[in-house]
Amino acid sequence: MLDLQHLHDLLQPIVGEPLSDIYRSVGQVFEFGEQRPDTNKRGEAITRGDFTLKLIAADWRIVQAGRVILGSSDRTNNESFFHDDEPSDLPFDAEAWRLGREFLGSVEEANLVVEAIEVGPFADVAIQLSNGFKMESFGSSGQDFDLWWFHNRRTDVSCLVSPSGPYIGKHSEREAPKIQPHEE
Question: Which of 76, 95, 96, 174 is in the most buried spot, having the most CB atoms within 10 Å?
């Protein structure tokens, strides 16, 4: 059984922080806080947010006013419908294109701030953002539990949340946890 309050508390430092990047990397990565200079595994200069939430095995969607703006199914072959320079001729697709581009522009400018966080019974995460946006994770087809990794770079604490429980400590999401699951 998950200690939902503990996971909620673990994610609390992102409240008040901007959503500052979204990208794919063996799952979907959402970065929060200030983007700071860093180096990737190949030694290349990059930036990273103060906090990373990587949805390893979970679908996700961005919702505003009850409408899905973007979701995990919006990408095919590393391309997204909103990367095209011009919207579709179909009115519904054109509006989706506009809203998707508007949302991603707000992320690039770090204009969307986290207002609240909820963690559900299957490790599903709901993050309320400013301007009425909400990011939600939910179990993939046939999956009854979200698998995700969270890293707080300010405290250098990471948490891998899986069906066997959360593993909290200092480790990479690629490493097998070297610590015991959090005790309830």
Answer: 96
Q: CA 15, 9, 104: angle at the middle one, nearest 5?
A: 35
What integer pLDDT is reported at residue 100 of this predicted model? 81
Amino acid identity of 27?
A: G
150 touches 10 (CB < 8 A): yes
Cβ burial of 162 (10 Å; 0-12, 13-18, 19+) is middle
Phi, psi dihedral angles at 78 (to 5 degrees): 65, 15
Domain of residue 26, residue span: 4-143
Q: What's the pTM?
A: 0.80
Domain count, the chain: 1
Are 169 and 155 a contacting pair, CB within 8 Å? no
pLDDT band at 180 (very low <50, low <70, confident <90, very high): very low
Q: Could you tell me if residue 99 is inside a domain?
A: yes
Instruction: Identify whether 106 is part of a domain.
Output: yes
